[in-house]
């Protein structure tokens, strides 16, 4: 079980992998994340695709424990709060959010972790992993050249 923040949902959608997400296990997202990824999203077709796979997983926290933390959006804060309440990992790419989650003993990972889990569970091939990662980067996902190289080397994939 895990909680998703906005960026993993958006980039997995851009890579066409949301249908595989539910095969990784039960996941939730805060209402504010849903609003950010569907209701306020500029691409109606992509928003519809996202809605199809995440709408049934909306679950807002009973309290927003981290709203006082500077530098966190409402969606980030509620995602961390929900993970705290559910005693599960939060999947987010924002550095500040992940630092706050870590400081509070909340397991956290980024979007690439989900791709690696899909690969580990044979939901995608190594080539699909690489193609998906490159698609995400081409759509604005930040991944340093060094991290990309490390991932490709670890998976024995050509760069």
Explain what this protein looks like in three dimensions:
- The chain has a domain at 2-112: 5'-nuclease (Rossmann fold).
- It has helices spanning 6-14, 18-21, 31-39, 44-54, 74-86, 95-103, 111-120, 126-138, 145-154; strands at 2-4, 27-28, 89-91, 108-109.
- A 4-stranded parallel beta sheet has the order 2-1-3-4.
- The mean pLDDT is 92.
- The protein is 55% helix and 6% strand.
- By secondary structure, the chain is α/β, with parallel strands linked by helices.
By CATH, the superfamily of the domain at 2-112 comes out as 5'-nuclease
| Poorly predicted parts | none
Q: Tally the beta strands.
A: 4
Shape: globular
Mean pLDDT: 92
Approximately how much beta-strand content do the residues carry? 5-15%
The percent of residues in helical segments reads 55-70%
- Rg over CA atoms: 15 Å
| Strand neighbour order, sheet with most strands | 2-1-3-4
How does the helix and strand content classify structurally?
alpha/beta
CATH architecture annotation of the domain at 2-112: 3-Layer(aba) Sandwich
* CATH class category of the domain at 2-112: Alpha Beta
Number of helices: 9
CATH T-level topology of the domain at 2-112: Rossmann fold
Q: What is the ordering of alpha helices and beta strands?
A: EHHEHHHEHEHHH
